[in-house]
């Protein structure tokens, strides 16, 4: 096998470098700036640790380019099984941090297994679906197994008290089923509860409007009465569920958090605090930003988790609309580039992997920045390549490296179809 | 191949949908940051400023109040208080807080709950006037106690023997109206601010309060203070309130207060030439010290409900008939109106008859004005009032009496001064409400009885005019205001000549009053001749249908060159000659000689108990 690095998708690598560079600036500002005096020592070391992880990741990224793409297919199930076992072990003997056991110490390195579980699940599902295309009502078994393959890791991550990551894994379901030929109408039906639920939380009227619009779209796509009807029923169930859930099931503090998202000014010192501070940080950044290490919200520690979940606020405050907009632009370029890779690839495994990776990033992107800008309730997921977090950075880089590898070998790989 | 083509088309279609989703997601977020950072930037910029910058109010020191010689009467004393913001307070910290406060948890929790009822998000005072040790303990541990704050505040302190409650006044929270109206003005009141609510603390509030300063501090999300914002360049130092230099004489005031203990009434002494109030007492007094700082609510209740109304300033607000102390002014009117001359003789058979018989306890015989004043013969003045009333001169008489400051407001710099009553025809019509009134209803006015009602302040102002040669003075308590930059502005109230008083007439009245302390009713307790001080005075006893008569004494001294004029009213104490005159005598002695040599008189006053009169005495 001849490696020709001219064929490597350098633009993707530049975007990767661009994102982690911005991330490094933001992490430095969030942990080493004047704010450092309010932070415990181990957090001040985040910047150095991130540098090390980037170094490791770079090595892994390069190394992966020398592996045959077939190896990913061959190892998919083994990796999947291994990661699930490790994740279960983590529940019992993991290092407890902030109410959840998510870290496993392996040869002195703290690893967040759930990050690798995402990767493993993605590979396994892609591998499983490679030879089973055209999922339809007739082939419901394939769909069910796929869903099960995703639900298991999502459930385990949930047990680790990591709702954010579980949510990201779950979004694989509509993506892979859609890609595997599930009709558009049903795909839309699958994600409709999330959309209707979101609007129901904002307001009952919005929820009903969303339900009606989705039902109409489904009817327009596939003129099947039963599908539209079930969309309507599902919509009503979601709306009622959201109302009941908000008022009856949720604990007051959880309810407060949801309400805070809708109206943070209700309780500016309590649940609405993070939402308000995040918006204030980004909004006060203005066009230019306040300058590196000059962000008052950041440096005075008004933001929680400002090196991970709220890192976008640091960028928004210190680098302004220019910085925040650049990050959005880099991401959308990355996503479109990856999608175009998938579209020109002939191998269904490669297509599935690249599309899944793209949407896994995309989910992180939407949820993280959506939380920081108060478009979505605060859910606590990191921003790929930007947020601090070694395991996440490594896992995300491995996914990117696999995409690059599949793209690099697309001619030779396609022969094996 | 066709299958492949169809599949490729399918793939392209799916890719386009996914691309659309990606682009829509991007656009939503891009629009959102555009909204936050470009459109709403002006809304969030000040929010972040406010977040990281805390404005700390620095309260200015309230102005001092000094006496005429520079003795401090009212000053400030630091007090330490602890506050709580319930929303930030963690109940888990209760044991630590209670330990630092040296109190039990139960008591602290109760105060916290009380604060919660007021507001969750605004700081409330948890405990005021804690000890310095407790204060420093809290200060050291403040970082472990989110939601707890500590402030140095100040309260009024009254060093020395002078209380002068009715002059100084107390500070309390502003009224709701005051508070609300201040919110639009330049100097906004804050919750918990105190303002003068009576006395000169109230009248001179704007001078005393000073200007609040502001410190701009950088804080973090935990409220920890980092440093002053922008090197403190924006800080505004508070401007100390202006000091009031009063006209009071601290020693005289202290003596007057001591002499008035266990009595009811009021007294005013002033410089007859300038109207400067040397001392002013209303008895009973309330204790200003108990209304300073942490207000003793029980005491406040007690003061408010006391039947002796200690909050009422009798020196400027009481309305009592002046009795015979009114006679000198009658005399001046008579001389001026041509009703009498200094030589006019009126025979006193022991009564005056007009419709009915009006008693006169002075020895029977002929009286001219001087003798009538010295011996306090009633007949002379009944006759005069008869002439005035019968000839329809009531209104011009009333006007001239008001020229002395009697029955009108004298605009002293204290709140709640009252007019009193100096009857004229309008007043009589109103009072009798359509019924007829006649000479009989006016007769007793001639001897200061009946409807005429005056305050000690009015009498002091009036007797000053006799002392100073016919000038109406403006009574005042504050002579100068010392600003924070040490510049002094004087109030300099003007006096003006009462044009109808002639020196010749005045001399007769002065001589009559001088006789009072030589051979009249003032000779026992108000004669200071053996100290070399000539006192001119007039006693009075005003009849009180509700109980014991009220005693009056007005005086000025030294006779030739008066430096003090005084009016004393002791309620329910019987004759003025034995109740009010000794007090006036002692105060004159103190003011002129600087000491009290007649200790027995002082003891007499201190142990004075009013006696029920057995026989009528000369009034």
In short:
The complex is a heterodimer of chains A (417) and B (619). Chain A is mainly α and 417 residues long. Chain A has helices at residues 10-32, 41-44, 46-64, 69-93, 113-130, 140-159, 163-170, 172-179, 184-202, 204-221, 225-249, 252-262, 272-285, 296-299, 311-344, 348-372, 390-408, 410-415; strands at residues 95-97, 100-106, 109-112.
Global outline of chain B: elongated
Work out the radius of gyration of chain B.
35 Å
What is the strand tally of chain A? 3
* Main sheet overview of chain B: 7 strands, mixed
Distance between the termini of chain B: 138 Å
Largest interface: A-B, 50 and 44 residues
Sheet/helix structural class of chain B: alpha+beta
Strands of chain B, count: 23
Task: State the shape of chain A.
Answer: globular
Oligomer: heterodimer
Description:
The complex is a heterodimer of chains A (417) and B (619). Chain A has helices at 10-32, 41-44, 46-64, 69-93, 113-130, 140-159, 163-170, 172-179, 184-202, 204-221, 225-249, 252-262, 272-285, 296-299, 311-344, 348-372, 390-408, 410-415; strands at 95-97, 100-106, 109-112. Chain A is mainly alpha-helical. In chain A, a hairpin with a 2-residue loop joins strand 1 and strand 2 (100-106). The model of chain A has no long low-confidence stretch (mean pLDDT 86). By secondary structure, chain B is an alpha+beta fold. Chain B contains 22 helices and 23 strands. In chain B, a hairpin with a 5-residue loop joins strand 8 and strand 9. The N and C termini of chain B lie far apart (138 Å). Classes of the chains: A mainly alpha (417), B alpha+beta (619). At the A-B interface, helix 13, helix 15 and helix 16 of A face helix 1 and helix 2 of B.
């Amino acid at each position: 096998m001849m490696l020709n690095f001219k064929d490597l998708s350098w633009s993707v690598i530049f975007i990767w470098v661009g994102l982690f560079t911005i991330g490094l600036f933001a992490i430095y500002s969030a942990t080493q700036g004047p704010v450092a005096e309010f932070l415990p020592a181990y957090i001040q070391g985040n910047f150095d640790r991130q540098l090390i992880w980037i170094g490791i990741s770079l090595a892994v990224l390069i190394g992966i380019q020398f592996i045959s793409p077939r190896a990913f297919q061959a190892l998919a199930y083994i990796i999947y099984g291994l990661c699930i076992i490790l994740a279960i072990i983590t529940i019992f003997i993991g290092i407890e941090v902030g109410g959840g056991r998510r870290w496993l110490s392996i040869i002195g390195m703290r690893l967040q297994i759930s990050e690798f579980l995402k990767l493993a699940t993605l590979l396994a599902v892609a591998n499983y679906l490679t030879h089973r295309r055209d999922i339809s009502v007739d082939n419901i078994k394939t769909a069910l197994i796929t869903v099960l393959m995703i639900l298991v890791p999502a459930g385990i991550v949930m047990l680790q008290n990591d709702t954010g990551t579980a949510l990201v894994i779950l979004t694989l379901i509509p993506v892979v089923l859609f890609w595997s030929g599930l009709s558009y109408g049903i795909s839309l039906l699958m994600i409709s509860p999330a959309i209707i639920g979101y609007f129901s939380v904002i307001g009952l009227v919005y929820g009903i409007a969303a339900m009606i619009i989705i039902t109409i779209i489904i009817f327009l796509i596939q003129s099947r009465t039963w599908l539209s009807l079930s969309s309507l029923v599902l919509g009503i169930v979601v709306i009622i569920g959201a109302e009941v859930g908000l008022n009856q099931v949720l604990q007051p503090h959880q309810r407060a958090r949801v309400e805070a998202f809708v109206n943070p000014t209700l309780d500016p010192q309590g649940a609405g605090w993070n939402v308000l501070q995040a918006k204030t940080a980004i909004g006060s950044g203005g066009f230019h930003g306040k300058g590196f290490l000059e962000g008052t919200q950041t440096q005075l520690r008004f933001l929680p988790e400002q090196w991970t979940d709220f890192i976008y606020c640091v960028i928004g405050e210190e680098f302004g609309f220019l910085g925040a907009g650049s990050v959005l632009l880099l991401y959308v370029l990355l996503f479109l580039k990856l999608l175009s890779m998938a579209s020109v690839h002939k191998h269904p495994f490669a297509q599935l992997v690249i599309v899944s990776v793209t949407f896994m990033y995309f989910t992180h992107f939407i949820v993280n920045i959506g939380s920081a800008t108060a478009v979505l309730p605060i859910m606590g997921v990191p921003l790929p390549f930007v947020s601090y977090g070694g395991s996440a950075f490594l896992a995300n880089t491995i996914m990117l490296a696999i995409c690059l590898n599949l793209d690099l070998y697309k001619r030779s790989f396609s022969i094996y179809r | 191949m066709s299958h492949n083509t169809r599949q490729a088309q399918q793939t392209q279609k799916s890719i386009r949908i996914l691309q659309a989703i990606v682009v829509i997601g991007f656009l939503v977020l891009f629009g959102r940051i555009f909204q936050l950072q470009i459109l709403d930037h002006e809304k969030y910029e000040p929010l972040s400023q406010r977040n990281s910058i805390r404005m700390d109010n620095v309260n200015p020191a309230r102005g001092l109040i000094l006496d005429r010689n520079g003795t401090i009467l009212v000053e400030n004393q630091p007090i330490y208080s602890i506050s709580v913001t319930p929303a930030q307070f963690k109940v888990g910290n209760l044991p630590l807080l209670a330990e630092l406060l040296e109190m039990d948890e139960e008591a602290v929790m109760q105060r916290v709950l009380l604060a919660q009822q007021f507001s969750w998000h605004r700081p409330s005072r948890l405990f005021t006037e804690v000890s310095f040790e407790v204060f420093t303990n809290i200060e050291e541990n403040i970082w472990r106690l989110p939601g707890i704050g500590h402030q140095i505040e100040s309260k009024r302190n009254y060093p020395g023997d002078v209380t002068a409650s009715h002059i100084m006044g107390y500070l309390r929270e502003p009224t709701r109206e005051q508070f609300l109206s201040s919110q639009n003005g330049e100097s906004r009141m804050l919750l918990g601010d105190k303002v003068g609510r009576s006395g000169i603390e109230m009248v001179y509030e704007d001078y005393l309060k000073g200007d609040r300063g502001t410190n701009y501090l950088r804080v973090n999300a935990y409220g920890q203070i980092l440093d002053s914002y922008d090197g403190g360049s924006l800080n505004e130092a508070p401007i100390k309130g202006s000091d009031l230099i009063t006209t009071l004489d601290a020693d005289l005031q202290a003596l007057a207060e001591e002499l008035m203990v266990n009595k009811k009434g009021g007294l005013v002494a002033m410089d007859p030439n300038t109207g400067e109030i040397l001392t002013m007492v209303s008895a009973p007094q309330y204790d200003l010290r108990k209304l300073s700082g942490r207000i003793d609510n029980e005491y406040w209740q007690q003061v408010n409900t006391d039947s002796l109304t200690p909050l009422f300033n009798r020196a400027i607000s009481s309305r009592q008939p002046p009795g015979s102390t009114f006679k000198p002014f009658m005399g001046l009117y008579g001389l001026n109106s041509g009703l009498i001359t200094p030589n006019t003789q009126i025979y006193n058979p022991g009564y005056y008859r007009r419709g009915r018989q009006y008693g006169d306890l002075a020895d029977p015989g002929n009286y001219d004005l001087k003798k009538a004043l010295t011996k306090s013969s009633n007949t002379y003045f009944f006759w005069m009032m008869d002439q005035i009333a019968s000839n329809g001169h009531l209104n011009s008489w009333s006007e001239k009496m008001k020229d002395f400051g009697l029955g009108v407001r004298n605009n002293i710099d204290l709140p709640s001064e009252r007019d009193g009553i100096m009857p004229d025809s309008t007043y009589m019509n109103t009072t009798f409400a359509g019924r007829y009134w006649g000479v009989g209803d006016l007769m007793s006015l001639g001897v200061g009885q009946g409807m005429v009602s005056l305050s000690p302040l009015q009498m002091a102002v009036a007797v000053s005019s006799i002392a100073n040669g016919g000038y109406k003075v403006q009574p005042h308590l504050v002579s100068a205001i010392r600003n924070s930059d040490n510049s002094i502005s004087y109030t300099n109230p003007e006096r003006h000549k009462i044009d109808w008083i002639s020196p010749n007439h005045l001399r007769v009245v002065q001589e009559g009053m001088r006789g009072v302390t030589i051979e009249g009713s003032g000779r026992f307790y108000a004669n200071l001749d053996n100290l070399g001080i000539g006192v001119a005075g007039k006693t009075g006893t005003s009849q009180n249908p509700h109980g014991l008569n009220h005693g009056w004494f007005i005086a000025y001294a030294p006779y030739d060159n008066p430096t003090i004029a005084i009016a004393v009213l002791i309620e329910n104490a019987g004759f003025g000659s034995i109740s009010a005159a000794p007090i006036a005598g002692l105060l004159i002695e103190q003011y002129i000689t600087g000491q009290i040599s007649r200790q027995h008189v002082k003891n007499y006053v201190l142990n004075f108990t009013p006696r029920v009169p057995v026989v009528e005495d000369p009034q």
